## 1
Amino acid sequence: MATLRRADHAAYVVGGCLRDTLLGRDPADWDLATDARPEEVVALFPRALYENRFGTVVVRRAGAQYEITAFRRDTSYSDFRHPDAVEFGESIEEDLARRDFSVNAMAWGAPAGGEAALVDPHGGRADLGRRLLRAVGDPDRRFGEDALRMVRAVRLAATLEFEVEPETFAAIGRNAELAGHVSGERICSELLKLLAADRPSIGLRLMAGSGLLQVIAPDLARQRGLGQNKIPGEDLWDHTLRTVDAAPNRPIVRLAALLHDVGKPDTLDDGPFRGHEAVGAAMARDFLARLHAPRALQEQVAHLVRHHMFAYGPGWGDAAVRRFIRNVGPGCVDDLLALRAADNVGSGHEPDAGNLAELAARIEVEMRANLVLGRGQLAIDGRDLIELGIPQGRLVGRLLDDLTERVVAEPALNDRAILLDLARQAISKRDIEQNRAW
C-alpha cells in the first residue's frame, strides 16, 4: 500500500480479508484495490504477474501472495458468471458497488494524498455486527450477474455462522436455476469450503431450502421427505446432515458423509435400501466427476461409500480382521471408521455403536504385526512357482492368490519353504495341462 501511495495512487484493502480481520479471523489471502491501471502496478512491483483480463496483478513478497486490482465498475454478464467486458472505474465507492455482499463491500485505505479510513457505503460493518449476509443493492441483479454468488452465500453462512437476510435468501430461490451455468470446478471448490465449516449443515439446509440443492445435486435433493427408521420425525436428509456435522473435518470423510446414503432413494423398494452402498458408490463417483473433482478424490469417496455398511461382531477372528483391512485398504481404515462413527451419530446412536472402538484396537494390533495384505508381501513370487515346473499363465496367479489367502488367515505360513511346499501340494497334472490349454 505504501508503494502505491508513494506513486500517487489510491490503495485499499478490500473484500473478504478486511471482513475476516474485523471479525478477528486470520485472512486466507489479501486483496487490494487501486486507481492504478494494471500496467502501472506491474511497473511498481518487479516480477509481478498480470495474466488475466480482469485488471488483477499478482504480487508475491516474503512467501505471501497479494492480488491488486484496478477499480472497476458494473457491466453486463451475459453468461451469468463473468463480465462481458472489464471497465475500469475511478473511485473505491464505484468499485464496492459491484461487489456481492455488504460484508465484502468494505475497504480500508486512502486515496492518493489522503488519510486512511474505513469506507463502508453499504452498511457492511453493521451487518457484521448482526452476523448477517445481505446482497449489495438489488439481490436479483447481483445473482443474475454472477450465479456463483448464490452458492457463495450459503457457504459463507456456514463458515461464518451468519444468517442470510430474508430478501437476499428469497432472491436465491428466484434465481437458483442460474446455478446450472456455473462450472463444476467452482461448485466443487465452494462445496469443499462449505464442508470445512464447523457445522456444514447450516449451509446445506440453506442450499436445500433455497432450491440450489436441486440444481447442484438433484440426487441429494431426493432425500428430503424420505422416511427411514432412524430418529423419529426426521427424514433421510436430516440423517445426512447429522452425519456430515458429526464427521471429522477432513475433506474425504465429509464428502463421504454427505454422499454415503445417496443410493437410498434408488433402492427404496429393495429390502428396503438393500445394496444402497454399492449403488451409492457409483452415484457418488458420477457426482464428483460432474464437478471435475480430482480422480483420486472421486475414487476415495466412492470407496468409503461402498464399504460403509460393514457389520463387525465379536465373532470375528483375527483372520477376519486382517481380511477387513485388506479389503478396505490400510490407508482407508481410519477414514472408514470415522465415517461409520458419524453415521452412528446421524442415526441417533453413540459413535462407538457396533463396537467400533474394539475393532479399531484390533486393527491397530494387526497393523503393527507387519501383516500380509497382498501378493507382493509373500515370501515367494511367480518366479519361484515357475521354477517348480508350473508353466507361465493363469495358474501361477491363481496359486499366488490362494497362498495369499492362506497367509492372511495364518501369518506364520509366510515362509519360503512352507509356501513352496503348499504350492506343490496344490498342483496336479490336470491343473498344469489345463493351464497349457488356456
## 2
Amino acid sequence: MQVHFIDNKQQLIEICQQFAQSEFLAIDTEFFRQTTYYPILALIQVCDGNEIAIIDPLAIDDLGPLMDVLYNENITKVFHSARQDLEIFYCLNLSVPDTLFDTQIAAALLGYGEQIGYASLVKQLLNVELDKSQTRTDWLKRPLTQKQITYAADDVRHLAKLYPMQLKKLHEQGRFSWLENDFLFLSRNSTYAPAPEGIWRKVRGVNKLKKQKLAILKNLAALREELAIKLNRPRRRVMSDDFLIELSMNPPATLAELHELNSSKGKFLQYNGDKIISLIQQGLKTPDQDCPVLPVIKKLSQNEEALADCLMAIIHVSANNNNISPNSLCNRKEVDALIKGQRELNILSGWRNELAGKHLLTFLSGEGQLSYTSGQLELKSTHKDTIAHE
C-alpha cells in the first residue's frame, strides 16, 4: 500500500475524495494527554485497503474534508479499541461518527480473548510481528521520522486487512448482528460527554465516606471536573484525590482552615477557596435522605456461593461450545451481581446474552438444571431439550 503524508489542505481534499468512495476506512490516532484534560491530537491515520494517509492535524487548520468522510454513515469506520480514538472526535465535533466496527470487540466474539491488543491480534490472524519501538514516541515533535511514519502506517495497514477477515467469519457464524448493541454504544455521544455530577464515584478513597461527607465529596469532585475542563488540565492536577478526601473527612469551616490543609495550593485556593467552602457547607447541610449512597457490597451466603459456581459452570459450557474464552463472556464479579438481583449487566445484553446470559436467567428461574452425563456437562430445560452441553 502506498503511504501519503498529508500536511496541507489541498492534499487532504484530494485523498478524501478517494476515501469518500470507500465501503470502509481503517482509522487510528496518535495523541498526547499527560498535561491536559482533553487529548491533543497529533496524528490521524486512515486506510481504505489500498492507500494509507498519515494526516498531520498540527499542520492543517481545517480538517473539514476528513470529517465529512468520517461522519458519512454509508462508510464503515474500523477501529481497534475505539473508545479513546472516538473521544478525540467527540472533543473536536461534540459528536462521534456512527457506522462503527471495533476489531477488539469482534475478536472477543470470535474466540481471540477479551480485550486483545492490536499487535497480538495481527500476529494471530496475519502472522505479522509489529514493530513496538515507537510505542512511547513523542508524536507532537516535528518533523516525524520515517520510522515513526512507518509505525503509524502499520496501525491501519493491518487493521484494513483484519476487518474483512473478521467480517467474513462473523457472517459465516451468523454472529454479526450480535455486535449491534456494542457498536451502538460506541457511537452514542453520551458515552464520551463529561459528567461532573457522577465523577465522585471514581475518586480514590470514596469508600471511606458516608452521608454528608459523601455529599461534600460529590460537590467538590464536580467542581474539580468543571475546573479541569475550563483550565484544560488533568483533574488530579487541579486537586488530588487525597485532597478531596481530606476536605470531605475533615471539612474546614473557614478559608484560613482550608489554607492550613494545603498551603502549597495558595494561589488556587485564593481564586477558588470561597466556592470550596460554600460547597462544603452545602454538603454538611444535606439531609440524610438526599446524600449520595455507594452500592452496598454484601458477601454471598454459602448457598449463593454454590449458586455462583453453578452459573460459572454454565458460562464455561457456553464459552467452550462457542470457542471463546469464558472471561470474554463474564467474570465472577458480574455473576455475583446477577445473583444479588442486578440486571443492567453486560452478560444480559447483546451477543453475551445470546450465548450465555439467557441460559443463566433460565437456570435462576428454576427452569434449567445442570447434569453430568457420559462425560459431558449439560444444561437442560425442565420443559425443553438440552440448552447447552460440554
## 3
Amino acid sequence: MDAARTAGVYHRVMERSEHRFMVRIWLETTAGSEGQWRGVVDHVGSGRRVYFSAMSDLMDFLRLRMAESPQSHPADEAAT
C-alpha cells in the first residue's frame, strides 16, 4: 500500500468514536427459587453506573451513553 493510502486508512481509524463499558452479571438465588439474573454496567469515561435486572435496562443505558461524545481515558492518553 502506498503512503497516501496508508495515511488515509490510519486517519479513518483515528476518527472512530469509542466508548468503554464494564459489565458484570450474576445470578441471585433465594431458597426455593430459580433465581434472577442481575447486573451492573459502568461507563468508564464518565464513571456513571447502572444496576439492572432486565436486558432492556442495560440496552437503554448503552444507547444513552453512546449518544454522548466519548470521554478520553488516561490509558488512551498514554498510548498516543
